[in-house]
Design goal:
The protein has about 280 residues and is an alpha/beta fold.
Length: about 280
């Protein structure tokens, strides 16, 4: 039996109930930034869908997101840098650039990554196991560099808690955000529990809450590892059912949790603000 649920199915199932509750859903108090840690200029879907900076900021304005971390995947490291630089040049006060780490057969990319982090204002690295094996001889130099440059890595480990544990343990000075609490839209509660345990066991391991199907696992994670280890994102933009509703739905997953408002504020922005030193 499949352990996945489609994004469209989840959104349609909850849309009516969420619409009725929006009026009662509190946003963080004034002065609390809402930051999306997971916004795609280029997606990893079958169409390799691209969104402009204008598209992303339009969604942010519509749903109340103050800042977004943006990156492009399914492309080379150098092109990902170009994508993000162009977007941030258009909206320097709203968008925060991450680059995409992907080995290149034609040339080494560590120098490009280091230059972007030290000279071009990039604040972190996106890594995806769907396009890059997370074995030591492939990805470890990137994690080591991230630790030296004191930038976080947002890693989609595609449902492998053993890989997540190896990375967290091998690179204690590198901050790692594991995307989707383990795997995109997964309904495998055991796998998600294993990722929560990694976050509990390692100070440098955090959980990205974008595209999580089992929303109750977010609340369990708060109880097990604390709100300080959870970082909110949308994994957007997405048109299911439309750009604004999708982002609002992702935000409401956190806003509707039965946890203190102070914890929601940390998850929706406070933690990444502190991590990156945002103002």
């Amino acid at each position: 039996m499949s352990t996945r649920i489609s994004r469209r199915h989840l959104l349609q199932a909850g849309a009516g109930a969420l619409a009725m509750q929006r009026a009662a859903t509190a946003t963080p108090p004034a002065g609390k930034l809402i930051v999306d840690v997971h916004a795609h200029l280029k997606h990893g879907d079958a169409e390799k869908t691209e969104y402009s900076a204008k598209d992303i900021v339009g969604v942010m304005d519509a749903v109340g997101i103050d800042r977004s971390i943006v990156f492009a995947m399914s492309t080379t490291t150098q092109r990902s840098i170009t994508f993000a630089e162009k977007a941030v040049a258009e909206y320097p006060k709203r968008l925060i650039p991450f680059l995409y780490a992907l080995p290149n057969y034609e040339r080494p990319v560590l120098a490009d990554i280091d230059d972007a982090l030290t000279n071009r204002g990039f604040r972190g690295i996106k890594i995806h196991a769907g396009e890059c094996r997370l074995t030591p001889y492939v990805i470890d130099p990137v994690l080591e560099l991230a630790g030296r440059r004191d930038v976080p890595c947002l890693i989609d480990a595609t449902g492998s808690p053993s890989v997540a544990r190896r990375l967290a343990e091998s690179f204690p000075h590198t901050t790692i955000l594991f995307a989707h609490m383990g795997a995109y839209m997964s309904r495998d509660s055991g796998m998600i529990d294993a990722f929560i345990q990694v976050a509990a066991d390692y100070d440098n391991a955090y959980l990205d809450l974008s595209a999580v199907a089992l929303v109750f696992k977010m609340e369990e994670a708060v109880q097990k590892v604390g709100a300080d280890k959870l970082i909110w994102g949308t994994d957007g933009p997405h048109k299911n059912p439309n750009l604004n509703t999708y982002a609002q739905f992702e935000m409401e997953k956190v806003q509707r949790l039965t946890i203190p408002q102070a914890d929601k504020d940390k998850i929706l922005g406070g933690n990444i603000v502190k991590m990156l030193g945002l103002t």
